[in-house]
Design brief:
By secondary structure, the chain is an alpha/beta fold. Among the domains are: about 20-175, Rossmann fold; about 430-490, 2-Layer Sandwich (GMP Synthetase, Chain A, domain 3), CATH 3.30.300.30. Helices cover about 30% and strands about 25% of the residues. The chain is built from 15 helices and 26 strands. The strands form 6 sheets. Strands 2-1-13-12-14-15-16-17 form an 8-stranded mixed beta sheet. The chain has a 7-stranded mixed beta sheet with strand order 9-8-5-3-4-10-11, sandwiched between helices. α1 (about 10-20) runs parallel beside α9 (about 230-245), α5 packs across α6 and α8 (about 200-215) packs across α9. The protein is globular. Keywords: Ligase. One of its GO terms (biological process) is fatty acid metabolic process. GO terms for molecular function: medium-chain fatty acid-CoA ligase activity. This is AMP-dependent synthetase. Pfam families: AMP-binding.
């Protein structure tokens, strides 16, 4: 009897490389990890990583987490993040990624919306106690049964995963490896509000393939990922691209330029994956002389409307691939030509690589009737973005939609026919990778007191930055913290007369 074709999972890709080269380098920690988390940096081969994954997977099973249940993860870009994600998948769990910028209110909402059974975090990150945040959020999430953490001085009641890694693996369970099964849940903010976005394995792999094929990453390459991994783009550009290449993955906790450059040179990284504005800044600083091992640079644009007006890439030894990000809906990539300028992006199906005839279709770009950009393809979770049922028409079937409207304003250039992305979704702001409704600013400003001002100013690197004015800056920071804003966002609040 013929066996039905089963698409691979992320763990399948890992085990393929493990069988081929068990002692090859697999994971490389940030060099400044001791400052960020208190842990010493690790370097792990595929065999060592597999042992750690097996131990964590067995612990999740022994803890009583049922197959297909959700485990939430809030971790920095370190080896622990990669090990936990792959261990969860090996145990048959679905991973919900929680950005580090989130605080109590958002954590609680995400845990309740996904019915997560466990949460995994780090004791501290950059001096912030994420263990305490996780414990407080778990107390308000009825579904949470286990709170786990890496690091020292964990609160009472939090299980230590460092101790799990220090002992031999226990027994795990057999899980059918099928790429059509749910792999991750990320979170987006749209005009309709907070939205969980589930994805199967094949969708994540499709995103990684779109980047790796367009950038022409060679097999066995050493990759440097300098993007927070707590999103679809973050996972696809780091975890998926690494597993598809079968090389080594070096991680960098964003951002320390000197440390990043040192890591690239020390590990002889061939590929740099980073926010596009950071990549362009590095490209202007004699990249060939300072980081000679680089052969490919992938720049991720959180504000894709800025690509067309960006500067030319002047490091021909390491060509730049622009990756356009549209929240959690999807992405597409376009490698720059010899002149270093962004290439026109045409509507319709696009292959990977884009310019190669007969290449596999990575997705499709279209212009919606509303004058916005639409995406369809294997990586695009159409059901997660389905429009709400109109009130009063619950018995009337709505016409199916086979694409996701990203909300980005777009038009066709008449001479060339290329897509021009002109503006981000209306009513949505972004500070770094943190997206929120612009209406939230009014509530935040109201809490600052009479005469206060809080606004989001355009910023080329992070999309927007928070700026404001208040009579009592200490009270302003306290009010923002009470609203659940992470200290990293509160630090962006500045009085016009000087820093708070």
């Amino acid at each position: 009897m013929n066996q039905p074709a089963v698409s691979p999972t992320l763990d399948t890709l890992f085990q393929r490389t493990l069988m081929r080269q068990p002692h090859a380098p697999a994971l490389l920690d940030p060099l400044n990890k001791a400052r960020v988390t208190g842990h010493q940096p690790r370097r792990m081969s595929y065999a060592e990583a597999d042992t750690a994954i097996e131990a964590l997977s067995a612990y999740f099973v022994e803890a009583g987490l049922p197959a297909n249940s959700v485990i939430a993860i809030q971790l920095p870009a370190t080896v622990e993040f990669v090990l936990t994600v792959l261990a969860a998948h090996r145990a048959g769990l679905v991973v919900a990624v929680l950005p580090l910028l989130w605080r109590h209110a958002e954590l609680t909402a995400a845990l309740n919306r996904t019915a997560a059974r466990a949460i995994v975090t780090m004791s501290t990150v950059d001096g912030v106690s994420y263990a305490d945040l996780a414990m407080h959020a778990a107390a308000e999430a009825f579904s949470i049964r286990h709170v786990c953490g890496f690091g020292t001085d964990l609160p009472e009641g939090m299980a230590s995963l460092d101790e799990v890694l220090a002992r031999p693996p226990g027994l795990t369970r057999a899980v059918i490896q099928d790429g059509r099964k749910a792999a991750m849940i990320s979170f987006d903010v749209t005009a309709e509000g907070f939205r969980p976005v589930p994805r199967p394995h094949f969708s994540l792999i499709a995103g990684g393939l779109a980047m790796s094929l367009e950038a022409d990453i060679r097999q066995g390459a050493t990759l440097m990922a300098a993007l927070a991994p707590m999103s679809f783009a973050g996972l696809a550009s780091s975890l998926a691209v690494w597993l598809l290449s079968g090389g080594a993955l070096a991680l960098h906790h964003p951002f320390e330029n000197d440390v990043l450059e040192q890591q690239i040179n020390e590990h002889e990284c061939e590929v740099l994956i980073a926010p596009a504005q950071l990549a362009l800044r590095l490209g202007d600083s004699d990249l060939a002389a300072r980081m000679p091992s680089l052969r490919n640079v992938i720049g991720l644009w959180r504000a894709p409307e800025q690509v067309a007006a960006s500067d030319a890439w002047i490091a021909p030894h390491a060509p730049l691939t622009d990756v356009y990000l549209f929240g959690e809906a999807g992405l597409f990539g376009a490698r720059r030509g010899e002149d270093g300028m962004p290439v026109p992006v045409m509507p319709g199906p696009h292959g990977a690589p884009r310019e190669q005839s007969g290449s596999s279709i990575a997705g499709e770009i279209l212009l919606t009737p509303k004058g916005t950009l639409g995406l369809r393809g294997a990586m695009v979770p159409i059901a997660a973005y389905a429009p709400p049922q109109p009130v009063g028409d619950t018995l009337i079937a709505q016409p199916p939609r086979d694409y996701v409207d990203t909300g980005y304003a777009a038009r066709l250039d008449r001479p060339s026919g290329a897509i021009c992305i002109t503006a981000p979704p209306s009513g949505i702001m972004a500070v770094g990778g943190y997206r929120f409704l612009s209406n939230d600013l009014q509530e935040w400003a109201r809490r600052l007191g009479q005469g206060a001002l809080l606004t989001a100013l355009p910023d080329r690197l992070s999309g927007h930055r928070l700026a404001g004015r208040a009579q009592d800056n200490a009270r302003a920071r306290e009010a923002l913290s009470e609203l659940g804003l992470n200290p990293l966002m509160v630090e962006a609040f500045r009085d016009r007369s000087g820093p708070t």
